[in-house]
Amino acid sequence: MSRTSLRKALAAALLAAAALAGFPAAAPAAERGTAPEKPVLARAYQVRFRPLRDAADLVGSVVSSEGSVTLQPKLQTIVVQDHAEVLDRVAALLESFDLPPRNVEVTLSLFVGTDRREEEAGRQSRAVGLSREVRGVTETLGDVTKWNAYEPLGSRSVIGAEGAPVTVNLSGDYSVSFEVESVTEPQGVIKFRQVSLKRVSRGADGTQRVEDLVTTSIVIPSGRLLVVGAAKSPDSRKALFLTLQARPR
After folding, report:
1. Fewest beta carbons less than 10 Å away: which of 40, 55, 111, 203?
2. Pair (79, 145) in one structural domain
3. Separation between Cα atoms, residue 82 and residue 65, nearest integer Å
4. 119: exposed, middle or buried (Cβ count in 10 Å: 0-12, 13-18, 19+)
5. Is residue 141 over pLDDT 90?
6. How does residue 230 score in pLDDT terms, banded at 50, 70 and 90?
7. How far apart are CA 146 and CA 239, in angstroms?
8. Given 84, 100, 116, which residue is the final one in a domain?
9. Does any domain span residue 158?
10. C-beta separation of 222 from 157 below 8 A
11. What share of the chain is helix, strand, coil (3-state, %, to 5)?
């Protein structure tokens, strides 16, 4: 028997002995160290409250290189193909993202401020006829602005829902429009897509003209007072001040 044949016979005998003793035979060298491939599965998720495109952007951030995302707008559904652990992660993300719109109570107050420092040198700010709550607002304004006399033009509290535009008439001449973009819990931070203060004027023929005075995006903690001011120039003796407070409901 040649040396090669002897080696093959010896190897066969060792494998047979190992099998009789209960030990598994070693895998071929080409197979050792190769992990089994994970299957790619498909799962559909219905998005009920949030925009489908926003949900797809969120899902796309966790899909693996082997995965894919398909939108079905008519069914408000996202179909994801990926590994099982990724599909479970997508389900958890959408559960915390796809929530019903939150209601937010928004309190708006509008004041016209006048710079009377020269007239009232050495005297306290004047806030005649104001309620205790409004007086506290005007005192705060007086601490941070040069205008030291304030006259209320109007104040209202309204309920707005996430994603729904709201317009509030604060007086015959001024209105405010806003849209709550999101409410972040548990911090209670409220994000407004935009808040716009507008002046409404009417011509002799009855036509209405709307002038946009201030438009800004706002992020504000729940319950905190925010002040937005508008004046023709830094040297103006008069200015408008819009105060805003918001709380989730």
Report:
1. 203
2. no
3. 9
4. exposed
5. no
6. confident
7. 10
8. 100
9. yes
10. no
11. 25, 40, 35
Nearest CA-CA partner of 221 in 197, 181, 185 = 185
Contact assessment for residue 65 and residue 46, using Cβ atoms and an 8 Å cutoff: no
What is the C-alpha to C-alpha distance for residues 213 and 26, in angstroms, rounded to an integer?
80
CB 219 within 8 A of CB 190: yes
Average pLDDT over residues 27-47: 75
Contact 127, 80 (CB under 8 A): no
Q: CA 50 to CA 71: how far, in whole Å?
A: 14
Q: Phi and psi (nearest 5°) for 60? A: -60, -20
What is the predicted pLDDT for the residue at 236? 75
Q: What CA–CA distance (Å, rounded) separates 211 from 193?
A: 19
Residue 78 binned pLDDT confidence (cut-offs 50, 70, 90): very high
- As a whole number of Å, the CA-based R_g of the chain is 34
Q: What is the largest CA-CA distance in the chain?
A: 123
Which residue segment(s) compose the domain that 193 sits in? 103-248
Average pLDDT over residues 227-242: 81
Query: pTM for this one?
Result: 0.60
Contact, 85 vs 104, CB < 8 A?
no
Q: Does residue 160 share a domain with residue 67?
A: no
> What is the phi/psi pair of residue 27, to 5°?
-70, 155
Query: Which residue in the block uniquely carries the two structure tokens 């706002």?
Result: 218
* Cβ–Cβ < 8 Å for 159, 105: yes
140 and 242 share a domain?
A: yes
Per-residue pLDDT, 147: 66
CB burial of residue 210 (10 Å; 0-12, 13-18, 19+): exposed
Please state, in angstroms and rounded to a whole number, the distance separating the CA atoms of residues 185 and 220. 13
